[in-house]
Amino acid sequence: MKIVPDTSVVIDGRISRRVESGEYAGATVYVPEAVIGEIEAQANNGREIGWDGLSELQRLAELADAGDIDVEYVGERASEAEIQRASAGAIDAKIRDLAVAHDATFVTSDIVQAEVAKAKGLAVEYLEPEAREVEALAIENYFDESTMSVHLKDGVVPMAKRGDVGNITYQEIGETELDTETLKEYASEIRDTAKRSDDAFIELSEEGMTIAQVRDMRIAIATPPFSDGFEITAVRPIVKTTMADYEHEEDLKERLLERDRGVLIAGAPGAGKSTFAQAVAEFLDDNGYVVKTMEKPRDLQVEEEITQYTELGGSMEKTADSLLMVRPDYTIYDEVRKTDDFEVFSDMRLAGVGMVGVVHATRPIDALQRLVGRVELGMIPQIVDTVVFIEDGDVDTVYNVTTEVKVPEGLMEEDLARPVIQVTDFETGTPAYEIYTFNRQVVTVPLDGENGASESGVDKLAKNEIEREIRSATRGPVEVELRSGNEAVAYVTEDDISHVIGKGGGRIQDIENRLGVTIDVRTFEDKPDHADAPSDGGSERGGAGGADASEVGGEVVTPEITGQHIIIPVTEASPGETVEVRADGEYLCTATVGRGGEIQISRGSAIAEELERAIDRELLVTVVRE
């Protein structure tokens, strides 16, 4: 008997097993060099299937040495380009040609390969891919009913997170330190099970990291040099909930069923966000909606009717494009973290798909702020109209997000009306935040219930903006006191007062018109506590080099002045994150980090002029995360 195996049956070890069982006893096995090249490439890329294939080739060599079979290596080695195009059939064609040349039976467990070979008149033996039930893994012995995750590392005693949702503790669950060989045995069992079982799969296989899903467990296997030691982490849900298990259940159900929504489920790690997302998915499915998920890795524990998708071709954008063809009513996106994720979430929502995204956030408003800078401000309520904050496994806060053209709370002049995103408590209807553009900056202002802005909100914002505008016309220090929502007093030096007021009061009138605030300009001598007024030393912040990093905190940055912008590179804050820009520790402005990891401030604005003066004085410019 003469056979030519393809890559699929070499990888799964089917040839050596059939030799040992007697079915291929005495056969001549023609091993294509193209198969060897493909397997070697897979092993070099750190893929376990490559190593499995190499093990099978070694077993065939041992069987040949024992005289059970004859093994011949035939054909040409596949080129790098052919290996890269393996999925398009480049290597399959070479293998089929060798079966014809040697008048051998072509053996495969690839149904497409088998059908093509039959169509070409080859003798074909199709071996159905093997599947077996998932047996208990050795790592499962570390779990009990209260265990959420198990953490195993060489040289360390076994650790686990155990307890109830909202009361999880990280604790030792063994006394003996683990060794590398034990962990390798666990890893081999996990990989083998994930590849061969219908109830498991390999989610990610890269050099140094393998992520497998086995039943309800997500298992990550990290190896050097990616990690500093051999490590296995297994996570599983400890509870499965329904909407009935949560606060505001009826209101949330009614809201979700009213129309397709854009929802962000936010909370700290371990708070129970994904558990709530699973409950939402099954509730929508039970009510006749077509529900899909987008996950990497796929670990939501949902019913079979809900199809779970991961990255397509390494891209969630491609997954989204495919889902738009399927047209689900709702898509659960777990997790939305990077700018690309927010863009995909936004695109699908604007295309009319109901979206539920899972986001890490320590406050409810932080989830919404992560959209700032990633999408146009006015589009946010069309993308997200509901924020659900999960804490200690239950719904803590629900925000309703709308937009309205109005004068922001705390400001008075009618000509200051603008689009304002209003964030209100869903249960009480109480205003919580307003988000809008003020003097070319996006600001998020906390509100004091129904009575408007808090002292630290609009008042602080207005004071900073007035100081900034006045400083654009001064060389000395500036202090501002707010008298009411639309009145303020600005104190400057005697030398600066004429520059601030301008000819015929024109300059101060322009500032008042821009800010919608009446400003009374006075000297420090008119200030009741003028003895404590800052001395005329060029700036109330001190002279050049007046502060160092240890005094002011934050990330020290070096702004770059271009023809149209001042560009501030930021490395310690993520794109979309809101930060404060300071000079020698004094507040300059609040800004949002752009996609390129930088802040751009248009030259000619009051903020830019103040920043340029700070740069000229060699003040220490820092960026502080809020």
TrEMBL record:
PANTHER family: AAA FAMILY ATPASE, MEMBRANE PROTEIN. This is ATPase. Residues 1-115 form the PIN domain. It comes from Halarchaeum rubridurum. Residues 522-551 are annotated as: Disordered. It comes from the Archaea. Residues 522-533 have a biased composition (Basic and acidic residues). Pfam families: KH_1, PIN, T2SSE. Keywords: RNA-binding. InterPro entries: AAA+_ATPase, KH_dom_type_1, KH_sf_prok-type, Nucleic_acid_metab_PIN/TRAM, P-loop_NTPase, PIN-like_dom_sf, PIN_dom, T2SS/T4SS_dom. Signal peptide: none annotated. In the N-terminal section; belongs to the PINc/VapC protein family. Residues 259-384 form the AAA+ ATPase domain.
